Amino acid sequence: MVEWTEQERSIINNIFSNLDYDDIGPKALARCLIVYPWTQRYFASFGNLYNADAIKTNPNIATHGTKVLHGLDRAVKNLDNIKATYAELSVLHSEKLHVDPDNFKLLADCLTIVIAAKLGNAFTPEIQATFQKFLAVVVSALGRQYH
Amino acid sequence: MTLATMLSKEEKRLIKEIWERLTPVAEDIGSDALLRMFNSYPGTKTYFSHLDISPGSSHLHSHGKKIVLAIAEGAKDISQLTVTLAPLQTLHAYQLRIDPTNFKLLSHCMLVSLACYLGEEFTPVAHAAMDKYLSAFAAVLAEKYR
């Protein structure tokens, strides 16, 4: 069972309440596809992913990026129950989407970097550590139902 | 064939340019990256039990500066990475013996420091190039381990 201090809850809620999901979601997903090109394997039907510019301006990727961030929102609102909250999503990613769970960490790292670029020095080492703890729990929950 | 040869000309140019810009603030970037690593990955602190690594400490700053300057030096001529890093390879293999999984942790925190410092300028393309370079750097550093 994951324990969250009051400070950690506050940090996580703070980060998400100040995020523009329509901006950050697309940026994080696009970055993941550019920095780790093999992740493009899951988006073959999304259209032109030929180069960085194509990926950054692809409307399907943008829509999906926003969707992913709204998915994360559910974890933020259910910090004490992330594993159960994500059980269905985990099954979806395993049985239907067939996503290698190692990829979740890659997207998580890209999201961290996008938020760091946005917040600058306000993204302190302590805040980073808390945010990464949150993402680690999310990643673990998403991989939980694989078998 | 090393990872270093898998960087395109444009990527090598980007990497060289970024580290040239960061050399004057090597101490800030380096100490920031180390602090982030110690906060997110407490196990990494075990390698520094003989130093004072509290925020602002002179050990933290001089160490951070040393690391960034070595990375910047390697960026000047990536094709010569094995030659440039030869002394550091020996140091890490026989004296420091830092488990190489830690290199990934510091690399990630270095990327976060770069993102904080460069903001939007740390584009996905720059990020990709930098990630590849730091991976290559770490791989070369660990070459003499066994």
UniProtKB/TrEMBL annotation, chain A:
GO cellular component, one term: blood microparticle
Gene Ontology biological process: hydrogen peroxide catabolic process
Top-rank taxon: Eukaryota
Globin domain: residues covered: 3-147
Entry protein name: Hemoglobin subunit beta
Assigned keywords, A-Z: Heme, Iron, Metal-binding, Oxygen transport, Transport
SUPFAM superfamilies cross-referenced by the UniProt entry: Globin-like (SSF46458)
Keyword Transport: yes
Organism encoding this protein: Austrofundulus limnaeus (Annual killifish)
InterPro entries named in the record: Globin, Globin-like_sf, Globin/Proto, Hemoglobin_b, Hemoglobin_oxygen_transport
Keyword Transport: yes
Gene Ontology MF terms in the entry: haptoglobin binding; heme binding; metal ion binding; organic acid binding; oxygen binding; oxygen carrier activity; peroxidase activity
Protein family per UniProt: Belongs to the globin family.
From TrEMBL, chain B:
Gene3D superfamilies: Globins
Cited Pfam families: Globin
InterPro entries in alphabetical order: Globin, Globin-like_sf, Globin/Proto, Hemoglobin_a-typ, Hemoglobin_oxygen_transport
Recorded GO MF terms: haptoglobin binding; heme binding; metal ion binding; organic acid binding; oxygen binding; oxygen carrier activity; peroxidase activity
GO biological process, one term: hydrogen peroxide catabolic process
Keywords (A to Z) from UniProt: Heme, Iron, Metal-binding, Oxygen transport, Transport
Domain spans labelled Globin: 6-146
CDD domains linked: Hb-alpha-like (cd08927)
GO cellular component: blood microparticle; haptoglobin-hemoglobin complex; hemoglobin complex
Family of the protein in this entry: Belongs to the globin family.
UniProt-recorded name of the protein: Hemoglobin subunit alpha-D-like
Originating organism: Austrofundulus limnaeus
Gene name for this UniProt entry: hbae4
